[in-house]
Amino acid sequence: MFNKDRWNEILEVMSSNVVRTIATAFGVGWGIFILIILLAAGKGLENGIRQDFNGVATNTMFMWTETTSMAYAGLPEGRTFNFKLSDVELLRQNIPELRIISPRNSIRLEEGDNVVRGTETGRYRVFGDYPEIIEQNPMYVAHGRFFNHNDIKEKRKVVVIGNRIREELYEEDEEVLGTYLKISGINFMVVGTYKEKTSNGGGENSERQIFMPFTTFSQAFNRADNVGWMAITAKDGSSISNLTEKIVNTVKQSRKVHPKDERAIGFFDLYEQFNRVQSLFGALRFVAYFVGILVLISGIIGVSNIMLIVIKERTKEIGIRRALGENPWSIRLQILMESVFLTIMSGMIGIIFGALSIYGINILLDSVGPVDMFLNPSVSLGVVVSALLILVVSGLLAGFLPANSAIKVRPIEALRTE
Question: What does the UniProt keyword field contain (predicted)?
C-alpha cells in the first residue's frame, strides 16, 4: 500500500488530465463543504437558542389564576380568585418532588413613570419575590447583594435593580448601593444590581426590572397574603411535566375550583417547551446530514464514473500487467487507492474551505454584535472525524465497481485494444 511506485502512478494518473481531475474533485469537495456549513449553521442556531435558556431552571412551570368556568361548592361560575401563601406550603407538603416554589407578585405598569430617583424618573416593572427566584431567572448579582430570608422575615424595604435602571437613573460613576428609590410614593434602599446571563438581551424589559422581598411588597402595596402567580421547579430526576396535573389539582382543591374546570388555572410548562427545542435541534442535525450526504453521493457517483473512464483508457496497460503475472488483487488495490486518494483530497479541500467560511462568519458576527437566536456557528472535532470516515468509505465505494471492472478484463482482449 505504501509502495513508492504505486503512489507515483497515482499522482501520474491524477495529473494526466488536470481539468477532469479538478471537475471530479469539485463534486466531493462541494458535498463536504455543504455538510460542514449546514452543521455549523444548525449549531449556531442551537447555541443562540440555548443562550436564551442560559441560567434558567428549565425544569420549571409557571402557574397563575384566571376566571372559573364552572360553578362549584356553592361558588358561582365566572369567579375570580387568587392563590394564597398557604397554597405554597400545601404544595411543599403534598409534592416532595418539588425543589423550589416561588410565590410572586408584581405591579402592573400603567401610564406614567412609577419610579423616582432625585430629578430622574422611569417606568419599570416591580416584583415581590423570595430569594430563590434568582435560581429560576437568567440573572446574577453584578454589584452588592440579593435580598435574603432575613429581609423577608423583617420586611425590609430593600430592592435590587437592573443594570439598565442604574444607567438610566444614575450618573456613570455614581455609587448605587445605599441610595433610595421612590416606588409608587414609597422609599426603598438599593442593596444590589443585577445583570442578565443571556448575551443577546436587548428586549424591552432587559435589565429594567426591580426586585424586592415578597413580604415587603405585600405590606407596601396592600396585597395581604395574595399570590399573583408561582414559579415552580422540580428536583433533579423529576420531570415538572409529570407533576403538573398533581400541582394544578392540589391548588384547585385548595381554592375550591371544580376539578374539571380547565380554564380557572393557567400554566406554562417551560420543561416541555425546552424538550421541543431539543427535538428541533435533533431534526436540524438530521436534515443537515441528510442534505449534505445526498450532495456528497452525487459527487461520489461522479468519481465512480470518472474512474470507469480511466479504466477504459488504461485497458491495454492493465492487460499487459495481467499478462506479466500481476495479481488481480494488486490491480484492484491500485484502483481503490486512486479512488480513495482523489476522494480524501477533494474532501479535505472542502473541509478547509468550510472551516475558513465558519471562521469568517464568526469574525463577522463579532464585528456586528450579537444576533438574535444565532451564536458562534461551529463544528466539533467529532464532526470532522466523521466527515473523514465518510470520505474513506465513499472513496472505497466509488472505486469498487471500476476495480472489479478492471480485473474482469481478460489479458488477451486487453492487449488487442487500440
Answer: Cell membrane, Membrane, Transmembrane, Transmembrane helix
Q: What is the pLDDT of residue 280?
A: 81
Residues 98 and 213 in one domain: yes
Residue 407: is it exposed, middle or buried by C-beta count within 10 angstroms (0-12/13-18/19+)? middle
Domain's final residue, options 244, 270, 296: 270
Which candidate, 49, 153, 57, places its Cα nearest to that of 102?
Answer: 57
Residues 257 and 293 both lie in one domain? no
Residue 39 shares a structural domain with residue 114: no
- Do 137 and 79 fall within a single domain? yes
What are the mean pLDDT values of the chain's consecutive 10-residue runs (418 residues total)?
Answer: 62 69 78 84 78 71 94 91 94 94 87 83 93 90 95 96 92 91 93 80 70 96 93 90 94 93 92 82 82 77 73 66 68 75 83 88 78 75 78 74 65 54
Q: What is the pTM of this model?
A: 0.69
The number of distinct structural domains making up the chain is: 2
* 332/376 Cα distance (integer angstroms): 45
Where among 207, 239, 270 does a domain terminate?
270
What is the domain extent for residue 84? 60-270
Alpha-carbon span 363 to 348, nearest angstrom: 23
138/189 same-domain check: yes
